[in-house]
Amino acid sequence: MRDTLSRLGFYHVWLEQSVANPKVFLSILKTRLRYIFIQDWKSTLEHSSRAHFYNTICSFNFQYYLDNLNVQSFRVAVSRLRVSFHRLEVEKGRWKTPSVPYNNRLCYICQVLDDEFHFRFKCQLLQNLRVKYIKRYYYTRPNMNKLLHVLSNENKTYIRNLSVYIKKGLNIKQNAITQNPNNNTIPT
Q1: How far apart are CA 132 and CA 142, in angstroms?
Q2: CA separation, residue 80 to residues 34, 91, 98 (Å)
Q3: 8 Å CB contact between 134 and 165
Q4: 107 backbone dihedrals φ, ψ, rounded to 5°
Q5: Closest Cα to residue 81, out of 60, 56, 102?
Q6: CA atoms of 70 and 134, how far apart (whole Å)
Q7: What Rg, from alpha-carbon coordinates, does the chain have?
Q8: Which band of pLDDT confidence, cut at 50, 70 and 90, is reported for residue 187?
Q9: How does pLDDT run across 125-180, given as a tens digit for each residue?
Q10: How many CB atoms lie within 10 A of CB 174?
Q11: Longest CA span, the chain
């Protein structure tokens, strides 16, 4: 306990064995513990060799899509995309032995980095799906700010459409790769 209090900047509490106002002290202690945990969590993420995308979008707040998606498979699809637990080349290349250099993890159709941004806004294979489920504003002249806005949107209808796009899109990409493992053209 002494070491914990000292690490949190409360060594004087250990020495005095008392606090003036226990409620105020506990509130400050709780806040400080939260901030330290978040700092350690972010530091761990920054030094991780995986989840480049998650590092960009992560926040230590409740994510609204968790409450607004009633279908578990859609909720799981969104979660997997957010935390980079998917089969886009940006992650699959990391699993290979030896690991494929990050910038060489290309979409087999578009021949550009197959990351979450490409999946969401650019992949030619998903154009029809994108038009059906995503507002044109987001995929016209896409950028990271639009991607962050897409993933933090709290509108239930938009969240549902996004989840359908992600689930169907990941399935389409996986099926296309499975059906044409050595072909670099769009399947018909």
Answers
A1: 17
A2: 25, 11, 24
A3: yes
A4: -65, 130
A5: 56
A6: 19
A7: 22
A8: very low
A9: 999 999 999 999 998 999 989 988 888 888 999 999 999 999 999 999 999 888 87
A10: 13
A11: 75
Q: Are 116 and 81 in contact (CB under 8 A)?
A: yes
Q: Where are the domains of the chain?
A: 2-47, 55-179
Residue type, 35: Y
Residue with tokens 């330290």, as numbered in its chain = 36
Q: How far is the C-alpha of 84 from the C-alpha of 144, rounded, in Å?
A: 16
Evaluated on CA atoms 91, 97, 103, 107, the torsion sign reads negative
Q: Which of 67, 65, 64, 61 minimizes the C-alpha distance to 77? A: 65
Q: Which residue has the tokens 């089969």?
A: 87
- Non-local (6+) Cβ contacts of 104 within 8 A are 93
Token reading at 105: 């993890």
Amino acid sitting at position 26: L
106 beta partners: 113
Buried-state track 110-124, b at ≥16 Cβ within 10 A, e below 16? eeebbbbbbbbbbbe
